[in-house]
TrEMBL record:
MF-aspect GO terms: isomerase activity
CDD domains membership: cupin_PMI_type_I_N_bac
Protein name, entry field: Class I mannose-6-phosphate isomerase
Zinc keyword on record: yes
Record's keyword annotation contains Phosphoprotein: no
SUPFAM superfamilies to which the protein is assigned, alphabetical: RmlC-like cupins
Keywords in alphabetical order: Isomerase, Metal-binding, Zinc
Amino acid sequence: MTTAARAWILPANQPPARFYAGGERIAAFRGTGPAQPHTPEDWVGSVTTLFGHDRLGLSTLADSTLLADAVRAHPVSWLGADHVARYGDDPAVLVKLLDAGQRLPVHVHPDVPFAQRHLGLGHGKTEAWIFLEPAPVWLGFVRDVSREEVRSWVRDQDVDAMLGAMHRLQPAAGDAVLVPAGTPHAIGRGALVVELQEPTDLSVLMEWKDFAIDGVRDGHLGLGFDVALEALDRRGRELIEVASWRESSAEDDGALLPGAAEFFRAERLRGDSRCDAGFSVLVVADGEGVLVPAHGPEIPVRRGVTLLTPHAAGDLSLEDRGGLEVLRCRPPAA
């Protein structure tokens, strides 16, 4: 049986020594032992590496095969013929668990045109958060800001001015929030989120004071801040527009984040459910049950388990054994 003929339970994949605190909530969610310090991210089903690294961030299957190698060897089986025709052997999505052990710094991710022009990449980093445990977030500017003002904030590390110029939202557990590329943002301390994003590790830091990183050296993707800060959307936005990026649908089943469909797809599944075939990452948000793929063995699941389903595993069924809730994360439609 090839790696693409069955679903896989994925172990934690937490890059060490990140520059911000966290990891305890991921360990509690997964039901594992004490967390290592500064392991606030779990890269789930990843064929993406950390910026500047050749291997760190890549997921390994239970048979010790790198997922990236498995997908390259059998792209149609893993991703489906329609996906391969459009994206090649690129799964075109990255999923993480993110545990904000402290408020994350204000930062911004480039969009596709910026990433193509300055970094030679085919993806930017639009992302979205689905909150398992909520905390405040800062998202977008309340008014237009000039290049000179932004550069002075970054140069002087004027964090109060940055946060004061941004909208502050308070998501609830289960809410989904879209973060378009170019939007300045920060996640508050205490959040545990399932994060979907374009498959890159591209961040431009606006803030690094009191964090374990040399932002002057490492905060600009090697481009220098004069270039890197051009990735920032400096427009002011009305609160009603920013609030529209938040989908308060914790009690609803079905598709989440319809505004993100060109970048990734997500859906919430509760109770007994059926899904069509396709490459996907499943995060069991609550309860317990059984995953029954059309091909390959049944897999008991419970809160905190993450799974990967290749296209060749066929249609999927989820059988509820008590309070089952699953988040299914997928690439954009081909």
